[in-house]
Each structure stands twice: as structure tokens, then as C-alpha cells.
Amino acid sequence: MPYEVMWEGRCAYTRFWGELSAQEYNQAQDVVFADPRFDALRCKLSDFLEVTSVLVTKEDVEYLATYNHGPNLTNPNVRFVYVTTDERIIALIRHAATLSAYELGIFSTLKEARSWGSEGTTNRSMGTRTWIG
User: Is 114 helix (H, G, I), strand (E, B) or coil?
Assistant: First the structure.
């Protein structure tokens, strides 16, 4: 699965295409978490509109969702925003929402996703998450 990460102000935009694997999603996530700009980040937007196949399991999602608890200690003010219309990906993201340290939102268009992501987080305590989509 190819991907590219672009920084847009206080938003990290990652575009994925082709085959979506947990390993490469995690690599893309690490790029964002390790960047010095992460401390000021308010939106982590993942665009899956060009993904053609999904090689991610529920177990992969559980690992990826709990993995973000460490970065959350550094910056709890990030909204994770996903753009997809793929029902398989939507189901995986909904599963991740039960474990994630961050607010999650799913949208079918980049315009809607960018709008919600730019609003900023409410910085709610663990266990309460905004769900859009």
C-alpha cells in the first residue's frame, strides 16, 4: 500500500491508495507521531478513498488503536479523521473507536472531514469519544 503524508498547518493529511495493510498504516502513523510538529497537531486525517483492497484484521486494529495511547500522553488534542466509503474500513474504524485514546470521525468526503478536523478537539477524558459518520 503506498501512502504519502503531507502537513497542512496543524493537520497531518495521509493519503493511502492500493492495498491497505496494518503494517504500512502503522508506518504512516509513526511518521506523524515522530514528527516534531506532532506536539501542535490538531487533526490527523487519513484518506482511504483510493484503497482497493483491505488486509487488516480486527486484531490489527486493536493493536493500532491501543498504540496511540502513548502519543496521546504527549498531545491529547488531536482528532483522528477518516475519509472512506468502504464498509469494511468503516467497520474496522468503528471497532478501533472502542479502544482509541482519541476522538474519531468518519466521513465520505474530504470537505466534511477537513471541516470536522479543523474544529479542534473537545479534549474529553478517556472513555468518551465523539463519533461522527
Answer: helix
- Look at strands 43-55 and 11-21 and give their pairing: parallel
Distance CA 25, CA 62 (A): 13
pTM to 2 decimals?
0.89
CA distances from 43 to 28, 36, 52, 115 (A): 15, 15, 25, 10
Check whether 80 has a pLDDT greater than 90: yes
* Pairing verdict, β 43-55 and 79-83: parallel
What CA–CA distance (Å, rounded) separates 133 from 125?
21
H helices of 50-128, where? Answer: 58-67, 69-74, 87-97, 110-118
The strand pair at 103-107 and 131-132 is best described as parallel
In this predicted structure, the answer to whether residue 132 has a pLDDT above a threshold of 70 is no
Reported as a single tens digit per residue, the pLDDT across 15-26 is: 999 999 999 999
The DSSP output letter for 35 is: S
Name beta bridge partners: 19. 53
Report residue 52 as a C-alpha cell: 482497493
